[in-house]
Amino acid sequence: DQQVKQNSPSLSVQEGRISILNCDYTNSMFDYFLWYKKYPAEGPTFLISISSIKDKNEDGRFTVFLNKSAKHLSLHIVPSQPGDSAVYFCAASGRGAQKLVFGQGTRLTINP
Amino acid sequence: GAVVSQHPSRVICKSGTSVKIECRSLDFQATTMFWYRQFPKQSLMLMATSNEGSKATYEQGVEKDKFLINHASLTLSTLTVASAHPEDSSFYICSAGYSAMNTEAFFGQGTRLTVV
User: Fold this and answer.
1) Below-70 pLDDT ranges, chain A
2) Cβ-Cβ contacts under 8 Å, A98 against chain B
């Protein structure tokens, strides 16, 4: 049972445009959501997070949107840069827990 | 952010041998660390929660006698893959955070284990 789903295994975006990565979840007890970026053979790097009491969090080029009623979150990257090419994982956790449930990941490729 | 160091980054071993992977929090104390495994083109899956000074908590389907976890200090957790077999070949990653109430987990670099 996949509690966190990233239905797009890959996404290709032109440099300078907006990248939108999507994530859906099924467990209504999730309280905290995170996005990680991962390069091959490396551990994930934290990007941005959002608490369930918010619907938007912004940090520089990265913005995460949370729609609790739809159990959906998205990561917007604008403008997209070649260095953004990586695999992006969304993750969720319950209240106060660091135990994360990950989605399958989306491979983002930024084309020059 | 906090630094979590994992060693070794890559190991190749013969079937039947045991392999130890270390996870260290370099600039903070971690009462809890987490061990994940990632198979090719799949998500990170939590294997176990490592608690300093007590037994680890394993996720369903993870053999505790094969994946031995020791969290002897606030800065070090080890995962030993006992009597490794080719099907144990995977990417293993640990994570830790500042406190139990902080959900921003920091990850180690990961260990690519290949059992031949």
Assistant:
1) 1, 96-97
2) 32, 34, 95-97, 100, 102-103, 105
